[in-house]
Q: What sequence folds into this?
């Protein structure tokens, strides 16, 4: 990734505002930051999802399950038409990435299509009213993983899509958070220079679906990283691994969980369980970072 | 048949209000249809709901274009003349508004009644969720649903303490609502459509999404740029290294207020 | 022009090559699979400059060509049966977005591997123009004509060219292959509308929008005129024509009764009609090539000239009836004097349709034409 400061963040805006997203929409900010880095020599593809931010770029859309397919079509057409100055860019939610879109995503990655895929990850199907996705974290409340005598929220931990994509040995996989804008933009600028399949998974908190006051969107995105619930890293060619944010000590996950209504029901035992999971995962990531190797 | 249109904002309970009326009149042996208007139901965005009430089953499924009654549960929307669009001659405009009917600026061939539902809600519920308060005013002014029926509907939907407080809001508004007066104000609905956000895409202004607005103290500002970086709507631009807010683009989310490291941005209640 | 003995699938691949297709997708499903194998051979041999993508499934295949077409490449895809069903979802958008994708559908009915027309007909509401070919020559010619029709600015609607699996896909017969120059002259280059390139970006232009229903329907209905024009021009240049492009009447002059057939059943039916004519029986064949948009005007004219029509449907709309049968009855309803319209379900699940079967059907229709009572009015052969 390129290393930047706040003052290096490009001034030019590529979003057309105001849009129809909720107050405090995480993905709306993610779109703004990503396209600052990309510029407008792109064809931006979307599938059904929340509106995030409209960008001043040519746009295509396709049915929900098919982002990987459409991006392939855009990219190959650009190639045969001799337009290597234009990038095929997807800005796709976690539904269109992790679930219904997963098959087409994996296939496009396996073919190493020349595509930039951004997952605007708000950890549920928000546009249709907050239903769970495989990106939803363990114990989170959603309308299809409710809390009651027979339910404690999402039953399983979230799918590790970035690692799975990295196992396709594509040139670049990274995670990002809107609370770390220089990290996100630095990764985008780096990915922009490469060819082949590039994937950046951006954690974008959703005040409506995660149930917190819209003013705290950035705070939540920051705590996710500081507690180790969402690690920031890069995987190059499916072989090299490096953490791009390494706090000396992780904050307790409770600080992150207690801010959000979707975790309001958690018992102390459940929080401890999550804390253990996060710590074990963090140890593994630290080891990978030390070795510099992605072991698949 | 009586046709009612509700205006509110996402998160304030306009849709719930329409359901509560329908449930209340059902207990009185009437038929009702409660229809939410599906648009982009984003938090803060204007929301519309309709109710039809009749002594026999309501069969028509088209929307309400000429309401007998318009109820606005948000005090800022209550200032928009377009909320009265289509209201029938001699109809009723019931506003959540902290001033008496004589001081309402919207006018036309209808009567207007007001209740300060936001204050009542803040004092009974602790939050500005105004739907149950407005329903108390509705019951008093129109007599269409009895207070007891609304209470029953509320307690069924909101158990325990929350239900009790909502009933308190209901009863207080019943007492405090101003009786209706002819709507003599100078502003007319005109050709504008009633406020509603539909679909996706770029909007002209989101100013009426706000309950609070951010105000920058330029003296305190240290030009760190963080507010500019974190605004999802690009409502903040940098002019000579200082943040300037475009209030047509600002939804009042409060991120800038929350993130400013020197607390140079204040979150101020929008004037009503 | 050279004559080559080739199987139907090679004819399809050859047509795509001659049409200078720029993006093609490949996924196997019997009996169309060899089309993509031929394409891959052409490309790897250097005979074709085309992006060839081995996709992971037919739904992806449809979206790849949809997106590539939107960006500005001429595209080709092909499928059969379950593959065609799998891509149903995005097929609606390919038409709604007015994209001139051309697809070969090698018929494999919905209940097995053998041919019938239920696969492509299941997509009758997707807004795709549908043509049904009766021999390998028509397969090749139709795909080339399809690009010309689809890319015409008055049309801009995707076209599916269907042909019967096994019977044509794997059967070899002589095919006149036009020269590349002749096809280049016939097919102007494709331009997307509007342009999707960043330098042409206009924030006010919607860029992606589904054409509203009424306009969508009328565009497809009106495409009949363009189809007729293109068929005529093709005929002048290449010396082969397919009726008026929508229907072809075979020995219908002074016919009292006609049978209507699609695909290879029409081909077999020519022999059946010849046999009956040799016996002095005044029957003719109407080969229905273009199912969508449906040639109402042609059937109204034919219906006013004959006393009975018998539609041979290699399909059934379950619980409703034969698609061709229902459409034809609709077409002739307002005539002053309506002909009888009989229906036959034949050839489903690949059931063989013999010359003698068609002779029998035609004789039944002739009986009806002569006022004799026949039964049942719709028959499963």
A:
């Amino acid at each position: 990734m390129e290393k930047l400061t706040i003052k290096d963040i490009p001034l030019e805006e590529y979003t057309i505002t105001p849009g129809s997203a909720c107050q405090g929409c995480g993905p709306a900010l993610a779109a703004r930051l990503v396209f600052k880095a990309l510029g407008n020599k792109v064809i931006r593809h979307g599938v059904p999802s929340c509106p995030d931010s409209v960008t001043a770029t040519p746009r295509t859309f396709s049915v929900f399950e098919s982002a990987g397919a459409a991006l392939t079509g855009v990219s190959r057409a650009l190639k045969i038409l001799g337009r290597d100055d234009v990038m095929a860019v997807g800005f796709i939610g976690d539904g269109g990435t992790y679930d219904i879109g997963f098959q087409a995503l994996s296939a496009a990655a396996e073919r190493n299509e020349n595509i930039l895929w951004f997952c605007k990850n708000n950890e549920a199907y928000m546009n249709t009213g907050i239903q769970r996705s495989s990106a939803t974290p363990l114990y989170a409340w959603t309308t299809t993983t409710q809390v009651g005598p027979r339910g404690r929220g999402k039953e399983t931990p979230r799918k590790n899509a970035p690692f799975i994509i990295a196992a396709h040995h594509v040139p670049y996989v990274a995670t990002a958070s809107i609370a770390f804008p220089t990290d996100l933009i630095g990764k985008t600028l780096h990915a922009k220079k490469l060819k082949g399949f590039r994937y950046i998974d951006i954690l974008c908190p959703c005040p409506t679906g995660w149930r917190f006051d819209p003013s705290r969107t950035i705070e939540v995105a920051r705590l996710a990283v500081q507690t180790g619930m969402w690690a920031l890293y890069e995987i190059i060619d499916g072989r090299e691994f490096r953490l791009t944010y390494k706090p000396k000590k992780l904050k307790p996950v409770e600080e992150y969980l207690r801010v959000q209504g979707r975790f309001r029901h958690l018992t102390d035992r459940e929080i401890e369980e999550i804390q253990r999971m996060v710590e074990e995962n963090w140890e593994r990531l630290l080891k990978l970072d030390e070795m510099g190797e992605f072991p698949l | 048949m009586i046709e009612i249109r509700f205006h509110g904002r996402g998160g304030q309970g306009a849709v719930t209000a329409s359901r509560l009326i329908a449930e209340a009149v059902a207990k009185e042996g009437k038929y009702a249809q409660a229809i939410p208007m599906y648009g982009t139901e984003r938090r803060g965005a204007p929301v519309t709901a309709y109710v039809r009430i009749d002594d026999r089953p309501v069969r028509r499924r088209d929307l309400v274009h000429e309401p007998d009654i318009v109820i606005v549960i948000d005090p800022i929307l209550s200032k928009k003349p377009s909320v009265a669009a289509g209201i029938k001659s001699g109809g009723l405009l019931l506003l959540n508004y902290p001033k008496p009917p004589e001081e309402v600026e919207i006018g036309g061939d209808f009567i207007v009644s007001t209740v300060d539902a936001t204050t009542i809600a803040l004092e009974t519920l602790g939050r500005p969720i105004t739907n149950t308060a407005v329903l108390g005013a509705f019951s008093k002014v129109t007599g269409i649903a009895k207070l007891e029926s609304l209470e029953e509907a509320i307690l069924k939907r909101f158990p325990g303490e929350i239900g009790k407080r909502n009933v308190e809001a209901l009863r207080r508004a019943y007492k405090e609502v101003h009786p209706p007066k002819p709507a003599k104000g100078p502003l007319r609905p005109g050709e504008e459509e009633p406020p509603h956000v539909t679909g996706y895409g770029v909007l002209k202004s989101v100013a009426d999404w706000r309950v609070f607005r951010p105000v920058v103290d330029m003296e305190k500002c240290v030009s760190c740029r963080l507010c500019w970086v974190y605004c999802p709507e690009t409502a903040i631009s940098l002019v000579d290294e200082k943040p300037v807010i475009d209030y047509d683009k600002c939804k009042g989310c409060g991120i800038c207020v929350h993130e400013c490291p020197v607390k140079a941005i204040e979150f101020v209640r929008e004037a009503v | 022009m050279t004559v080559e003995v080739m199987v139907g699938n090679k004819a399809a691949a050859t047509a795509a090559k001659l049409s200078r297709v720029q993006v093609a997708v490949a996924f196997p499903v019997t009996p169309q699979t060899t089309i993509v194998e031929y394409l891959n051979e052409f490309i790897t041999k250097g005979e074709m400059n085309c992006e060839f993508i081995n996709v992971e499934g037919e739904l992806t295949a449809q979206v790849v060509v949809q997106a590539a077409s939107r960006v500005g490449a001429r595209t080709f895809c092909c499928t059969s049966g379950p593959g065609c069903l799998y891509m149903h979802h995005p097929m609606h958008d390919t038409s709604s977005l007015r994209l001139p994708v051309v697809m070969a559908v090698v018929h494999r009915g919905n209940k097995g591997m053998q041919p019938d027309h239920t696969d492509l007909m299941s997509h009758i509401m997707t807004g795709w123009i549908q043509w049904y070919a009766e021999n390998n020559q028509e397969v090749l010619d139709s795909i080339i004509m399809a690009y010309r029709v689809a890319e015409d600015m008055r049309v801009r609607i995707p076209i599916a060219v269907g042909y019967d699996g096994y019977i044509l896909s794997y059967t070899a017969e002589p095919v006149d292959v036009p020269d590349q120059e002749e096809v280049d002259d016939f097919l102007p280059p494709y331009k997307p509308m509007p342009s999707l390139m960043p330098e042409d970006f206009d924030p006010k232009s919607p860029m992606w929008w589904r054409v509203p229903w009424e306009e969508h329907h009328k565009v497809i209905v009106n495409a009949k005129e363009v189809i007729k024009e293109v068929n005529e021009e093709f005929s002048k240049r290449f010396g082969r024509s397919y009726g008026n492009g929508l229907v072809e009447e075979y020995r219908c002059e002074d016919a009292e009764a006609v049978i209507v057939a699609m695909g290879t059943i029409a081909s077999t039916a020519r022999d059946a009609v010849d046999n009956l004519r040799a016996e002095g029986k005044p029957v003719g064949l109407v080969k229905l090539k273009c199912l969508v948009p449906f040639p109402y005007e042609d059937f109204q004219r034919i219906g006013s000239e004959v006393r009975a029509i018998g539609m041979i449907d290699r399909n059934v709309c379950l619980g409703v009836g034969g698609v061709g049968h229902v459409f034809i009855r609709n077409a002739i309803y307002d005539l002053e004097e309506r002909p009888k319209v009989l229906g036959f379900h034949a050839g489903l699940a690949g059931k063989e349709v013999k010359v003698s079967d068609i002779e029998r059907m035609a004789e039944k229709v002739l009986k009806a034409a002569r006022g004799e009572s026949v039964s049942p009015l719709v028959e499963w052969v």
In short: Residues 15 and 55 of chain A are 4 Å apart (CA to CA). Chain A has ten helices and twelve strands. The two ends of chain A are 22 Å apart (CA to CA). Chain A has a mean pLDDT of 97.
